[in-house]
Description:
- The complex is a heterodimer of chains A (113) and B (290).
- By secondary structure, chain A is an alpha+beta fold.
- Chain A has helices at residues 2-20, 41-51, and strands at 26-34, 61-67, 69-73, 78-82, 97-101, 105-112.
- Chain B contains nine helices and nine strands.
- Chain B has an eight-stranded mixed beta sheet, with helices on both faces.
Amino acid sequence: MHEMSLCEGVLQVLETEAKKQSFSKVKTVWLEIGNLSSVEPEAMLFSFDVVSRNTLADGAKLNIINIPGNAWCMQCARKVLVKQRYDECPECGSYQLQVTGGDEMRIKELEVE
Amino acid sequence: MCTVCGCGEGESRIEGENHHSHDHEYNHQHSPTSDDNTHHYGHGPAHAHAPGMNQSRMVQIEQDILGKNNEYANTNRSLFASKGILALNLVSSPGSGKTSLLTRTLQDMKDNIPMTVIEGDQETSQDANRIRATGVAAIQINTGKGCHLDAHQVGHAVKHLSPQDASVIMIENVGNLVCPAAFDLGEAYKVAILSITEGEDKPIKYPDMFHAADLLLLNKIDLLPHLDFDVLKCIEYAQRVKPGIQILKVSAKTGEGMSDWYQWIRLAHQTRLIGHYPQKQSTKIVKEAV
Lengths: 113, 290
């Protein structure tokens, strides 16, 4: 259930930004969550609902943008798509892969008023 | 979570510390501002003056969700670097023998390298008591409903422990192979402990943790004759998830392989000392020169 702490982290960022950019209500939040980031989007939606109650993001809509997992195959010397960290290279079957993207957890943008 | 300092409100506790003394009041305003019973849309946060204009707007922030934790982790990391401290984050599932491995390590090494321990558990200070029985200073963090340690808790614990320069801090994380993978504590290395009673496929079942780890200790190796654990398969799985992972076979009970682990700690500790000149030593040199 570390999605709960992640949502608390999101809320912290919102509260800091609210002071900096002077807004008082958040209506929509867009998150970029990578496929390899060990985050369960469903749990994230659930936790956000709970965590945001009675805050500036009360009732805000959470949109999750999924980012596919990318890796560099050392054998093929090119970028390939992976679903999990332990996936083999879809081209050559090698496990010599370096994950290059898809493990991000970012707050992309907000709709505020 | 507390918005002033980032701590989990009333959830996590650091032994011997009553940290929470500030208030938590959410004091936000709703637009339009309605002082004196008037609705003035021009005083709204977006300062919109056109009648009927919606005050909602888009804000690009592009920030890491774990940004706050990473800030605390960086603070911890630079503190460790300035003091020449080696910090290790020990991660595993519950029951892998982390605490037994740790107590044995402390008993065997504490006379040569100064060590302190930060213990993370959901509840109780049983583990910290086991550590203190070896004569090593330990502090317990109870995470309450939390499933992992975060960099902020560790920062407070380090302050409380005030470890000496050029020492080793062992951070025993909450027994959990999922969440602690995402939270940087400012450690130099993550050490994953996997006991052979757990099954050789753990590394691919919990790939995030084994991917984040720098060293894998295969513990309870003394039980190998009694189990069907396939060591080679386990190593292969671990290397699939993290091609460069280093793997050591140990038994905290019989002591088999423990000298390799101690050697690994000594080497890691030495690398922390490169470029580190302790305060005391430099003053001594100055005195001698005078």
